Every structure is written in C-alpha cells, then in structure tokens.
Amino acid sequence: MMKTRISITLSIVACSLLFFPVAKAGVYDELDQFVSAISETIRKERIVLISDNLRFTPEEAAAFWTVYEKYVEEMTAVKESRVKLVKDYLTDIKFQITDDTAQELTRRAFHIVGSRLKIRQKYYPLFAEATSASLATRFMQLDRMIDTAIDLRIAQAMPAYPTEMGVFLESSNDSPKEEGL
C-alpha cells in the first residue's frame, strides 16, 4: 500500500514537473501558480501517506498533527527559499554564469539543505515526545523519502542537469543485457 501510494504521489509530481522547464521562458507568474498548485497536491498527499503508514491511535494522531502543523510552517519557509533559488538560477543561468553568481547560488543551496536538516533535528524529539521514538523515526524516514524523490525530479528538470548523470540514470533503468551486467 505504501509503495503504491508513494508511486502515485511521485507520478503526480513527475508529470507536473515535466512542465517545469517551460517556466524558464520568463513567465514567473505562471511558475508561481504552478508551484502553488503542486505544493497543495504534495501537501495533501503527504498527509494521506503519513496517515496510511503511521497508523496513529487517536491520542497519537492529535498530538502528532499539532506538532506537524508547526513543522510544516518552518519547512514552508525553506521551500519558499528554494523556489526563489530556482527562479534566480533560471534567471541568471544563461549557460554562462559568472563564478560569483555560481558561488552565491551554491551557497544558498547549501543553506537550504542545512535548514531542512536543522528543522528535522529540532522536530524529531518533539514528534518522539508527542507519539513515540519509533513513530517519529518512521515519520522522518517517510518525510525524507518524499523530499528526496521530489528533489530528484527537480534536479532532472533543471537545465544544467549533467548529461553524464542523465545517461547513468537512464541506463540504470534498463534491464541487464544477455551478455552480462
């Protein structure tokens, strides 16, 4: 059930992200609408995935969702920073960015990754206290799995996605040849 639900969610995200590169044409209002619609879909699917996979008691659910609302508020700020970074990247890239611009974009990307980790580290004990350590761990694993899959789709949609990595990912999906691996 979990794998099916995750596959459905990722399919929705993947299909939506197919249109992401079109946004780089400079129509950022459309990008904002797109991000808003996708964010809402992902938010709803996360809630369903969490509910389906963690199977809270009524008491655990009440405590968990109270903490989760605060967690989502903080993660939303990070998501907004990431959307801004992607917009800036698409604006500045022109396939010949300066070293200064490259360093700034990379510094911001590192900050976003660090911010996500700090928020997870802050909230893990709060989730564990609200429910149990095992449920908190399972939630963190599920949440990170979803984020990792979304990150991969975004990376694939970015114009500077390395050809070598693309070839590697495409070949990893192929079945082994008769001659050997």
Strand and helix map with partners:
Elements: H1 2-17, H2 28-54, H3 58-92, H4 99-130, H5 133-157, H6 163-172
Helix pairs in contact: 1-2, 1-5, 2-5, 3-4, 4-5
Task: Provide the descriptors you would attach to this structure in a database record.
mainly alpha, 80% helix, elongated, disordered C terminus
Description:
With 181 residues, the protein is mainly α. 80% of the residues lie in helices and 0% in strands. The longest helix is centred in the middle third of the chain and has 35 residues, at 58-92. The model is unreliable at 17-27, 161-169 and 175-181 (pLDDT under 50).
Summarize the model shown.
With 181 residues, the protein is mainly α. Helix content is 80%, strand content 0%.
Provide the structure class.
mainly alpha
Low-confidence stretches: 17-27, 161-169, 175-181
Q: Multimeric state of these chains?
A: single chain
Number of helices: 6
Rg estimate, integer Å: 19 Å
Q: What is the H/E order?
A: HHHHHH
User: Per DSSP, what share of the residues sits in E-state strands of 2 or more residues?
Assistant: under 5%
Mean pLDDT: 76
Q: Which shape, going by the Cα principal axes?
A: elongated
Distance between the termini: 31 Å
Helicity, as a percent range: over 70%
Strand count, sense and closure of the main sheet?
none
Number of strands: 0
